[in-house]
């Protein structure tokens, strides 16, 4: 059995809103929305990977808060795990720096206004429970 590679996604929450990022690449994913994040590097904790990916992709300083229950299969050998995260007090506003061409802060009533990547839908549902709560 091949080793699984964990991809972390950030349910970045701020003032009752969830950040969605629109993919600009690869072509088969471009134009669809996802929770920002990326691969956990060898020797890195998922939380550290999440914070690094948010810095690289969005230019923000954020902290992982708690893991969202569940794990979702991506293309083998990848699996998606999601953490809620929040911006640190002095963080700049997020900007789409790499792999994305747009960002949107969505309230619980707007969550399904964007075309989420299929594998992100169950994770967004889980994160949504934290928005309304």
Automatic annotation (TrEMBL):
Entry's Gene Ontology molecular function annotations: 8-oxo-7,8-dihydrodeoxyguanosine triphosphate pyrophosphatase activity; 8-oxo-7,8-dihydroguanosine triphosphate pyrophosphatase activity; 8-oxo-dGDP phosphatase activity; 8-oxo-GDP phosphatase activity; metal ion binding
Catalyzed reaction equations: 8-oxo-dGTP + H2O = 8-oxo-dGMP + diphosphate + H(+)
Cited InterPro entries: MutT-like, Nudix_hydrolase, NUDIX_hydrolase-like_dom_sf, NUDIX_hydrolase_CS, NUDIX_hydrolase_dom
Highest taxon of source: Bacteria
EC numbers for this chain: 3.6.1.55
Keyword DNA damage: yes
Nudix hydrolase domain ranges (all copies): 3-130
Cofactor: Mg(2+)
Keywords in alphabetical order: DNA damage, DNA repair, DNA replication, Hydrolase, Magnesium, Metal-binding, Mutator protein
GO biological process: DNA repair; DNA replication
Enzyme class: hydrolase
Family note: Belongs to the Nudix hydrolase family.
Name of protein: 8-oxo-dGTP diphosphatase
Protein's organism: Streptomyces cadmiisoli
